[in-house]
C-alpha cells in the first residue's frame, strides 16, 4: 500500500519474470491491471467485541477485534452491509465469540458480492444457540439485501483458526449466488471457491478462452475447476469439456451453470484432480490447471509430462510453485505468460501461462 499502482503492477511483473527467467521461450503479454480500490468481491470478517459494540474486521496478536469496515480494498457495496450486520447483532442480541476466553457464539460473517449487486451473507456460529433468532428474523434481514441475495448459517464448533465449518444451512429459498461473467451465467454455493476480483476473473477466463479457441481442441480438461469458470468459457460446439474439482458444492454449481447454458458436452465431477488424470485412461487435447497455492502434485506433473496432451494452460496464484511445476513439465515449451492483478495493494498476483508440447 502507498506504492503508486503502476509501480505495484510493474513490481509484480518483475517478480514473475525473475522467477520464470529460466524459460527463455516465454514471452510476457502486457499485464492486466485492476481497479486499485474496492475490487474485492469477498469480505471475510471476524466478529469480536460485544453485542452492543461489535468489531467487524480482524483480530490483533492478542486475539482482540480490530475494526476493518472501512478497508479500501473491499467493494463499497459490501462495506454498505456492515451497518446492517451491526444492527442485527444488536437487535438479535448475538454474542460475538471471544477468542482468548473461548466464549461466545458469533465468529465470522462472510460476504460475497455478485456483479449483479446480489450478496451472499454467511453467518458463522459456534453452536445452534442463535440459529432460531437468525432464522426468525430472515424476512427483515432479506429486506435490507439487494434482490437475488442468499443467506446461510455455518457452524464452526471447534476452537480453530479456520474460517468456517462443514455444516451449512441455507436460510433463503435461493441457494446460489448468480454471477454473469462475459455473458456466461455462473453460480456460487456457500462453500464453493470464487475468484475474489470479479473484473480480473472475467479477464482471466477471456484470456484462457482465447488461447483455447486459437488451438481449437476437441477435448479440454479443466482441473481444479471450482465453479467451472475455465470449463464454461472453453465450451464450444464439437468440443467436450470436463471440470474436475474436490468440492462437491462447487461441482453442483458448475453443473447448474452448464445446464442453464444448455451445454450437453460439459461434464463436472467431484474428484481429486491427480486421481482423475491417472485413472482416466485417455488424455484430452488440452488441459487447463488452476490449483491452490501449493501448485499441482508431482504425480500430475509427471502424468502430464508423459501424456499426449498438446496444450496446457496453467493459471497460478503462486509463481513459486508455478516455476517448480513448469520445470517438471520439461516436455512442454512455455510460450506466453500474462500477469493478471487479482490482488492490488498486496504482493500477490495471478499469472496465466500457455504451454505447448515440444516437437519430439
Ligand atoms: C484456485 S481455486 C480455482 C478454482 C477455479 N478454477 C476458478 O477459476 O474459480 C482452486 C480450486 O481447487 C480445488 N482443489 C483443491 N485441491 C484439489 C484437488 N486435489 N483436486 C481437485 N480440486 C482441488 C479447490 O476446491 C478450489 O476450488
TrEMBL record:
Binding-site residues, S-adenosyl-L-methionine: 195, 224, 245, 290
CDD domains to which the protein is assigned, alphabetical: AdoMet_MTases
Lineage: superkingdom: Bacteria
GO MF annotation list: rRNA (uridine-C5-)-methyltransferase activity
GO biological process: rRNA base methylation
Pfam families in the record: tRNA_U5-meth_tr (PF05958)
Residues at the active site: 317 (nucleophile), 317
Positions in coiled-coil regions: none
Similarity remark: Belongs to the class I-like SAM-binding methyltransferase superfamily. RNA M5U methyltransferase family.
Protein name: 23S rRNA (Uracil(747)-C(5))-methyltransferase RlmC
Lineage: Bacteria, Bacillati, Actinomycetota, Actinomycetes, Micrococcales
Gene it is expressed from: rumB
Amino acid at each position: 500500500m502507498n506504492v503508486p499502482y503502476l509501480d505495484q503492477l510493474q513490481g509484480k511483473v518483475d517478480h514473475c519474470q525473475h522467477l520464470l527467467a529460466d524459460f527463455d521461450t516465454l514471452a510476457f503479454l502486457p499485464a492486466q491491471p485492476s481497479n486499485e480500490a474496492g475490487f474485492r468481491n469477498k469480505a471475510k470478517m471476524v466478529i469480536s467485541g460485544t453485542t452492543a459494540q461489535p468489531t467487524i474486521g480482524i483480530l490483533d496478536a492478542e486475539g482482540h477485534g480490530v475494526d476493518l469496515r472501512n478497508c479500501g480494498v473491499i467493494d463499497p457495496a459490501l462495506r454498505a452491509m456492515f451497518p446492517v450486520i451491526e444492527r442485527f447483532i444488536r437487535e438479535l442480541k448475538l454474542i460475538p465469540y471471544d477468542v482468548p476466553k473461548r466464549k461466545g457464539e458469533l465468529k465470522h460473517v462472510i460476504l460475497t458480492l455478485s456483479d449483479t449487486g446480489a450478496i451472499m451473507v454467511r453467518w458463522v456460529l459456534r453452536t445452534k444457540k442463535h440459529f432460531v433468532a437468525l432464522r426468525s428474523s430472515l424476512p427483515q434481514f432479506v429486506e435490507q439485501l439487494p434482490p437475488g441475495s442468499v443467506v446461510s448459517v455455518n457452524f464452526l464448533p471447534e476452537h480453530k483458526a479456520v474460517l468456517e465449518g462443514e455444516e451449512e444451512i441455507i436460510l433463503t429459498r435461493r441457494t446460489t449466488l448468480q454471477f454473469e461473467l462475459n455473458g456466461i451465467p455462473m453460480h456460487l454455493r456457500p462453500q464453493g471457491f470464487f475468484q475474489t476480483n470479479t473484473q480480473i476473473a472475467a479477464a482471466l477466463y477471456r484470456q484462457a478462452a482465447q488461447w483455447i479457441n486459437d488451438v481449437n481442441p476437441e477435448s479440454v480438461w479443466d482441473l481444479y475447476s471450482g465453479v467451472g469458470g475455465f470449463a464454461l468459457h472453453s465450451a464450444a460446439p464439437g468440443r467436450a469439456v470436463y471440470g474436475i474439482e474436490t468440492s462437491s458444492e462447487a461441482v453442483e454449481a458448475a453443473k447448474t451453470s452448464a445446464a442453464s447454458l444448455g451445454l450437453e458436452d460439459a461434464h463436472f465431477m467431484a474428484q481429486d484432480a491427480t486421481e482423475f488424470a491417472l485413472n482416466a485412461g485417455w488424455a484430452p487435447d488440452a488441459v487447463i490447471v488452476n490449483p491452490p497455492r501449493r501448485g499441482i502434485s508431482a504425480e500430475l506433473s509427471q502424468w502430464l509430462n508423459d501424456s499426449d496432451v498438446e496444450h496446457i494452460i496453467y493459471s497460478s496464484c503462486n509463481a513459486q510453485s508455478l516455476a517448480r511445476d513448469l520445470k517438471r513439465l520439461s516436455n512442454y515449451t512455455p510460450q506466453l505468460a500474462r500477469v493478471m492483478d487479482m490482488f492490488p495493494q498486496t504482493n500477490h498476483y495471478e499469472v496465466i501461462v500457455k504451454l505447448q508440447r515440444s516437437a519430439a
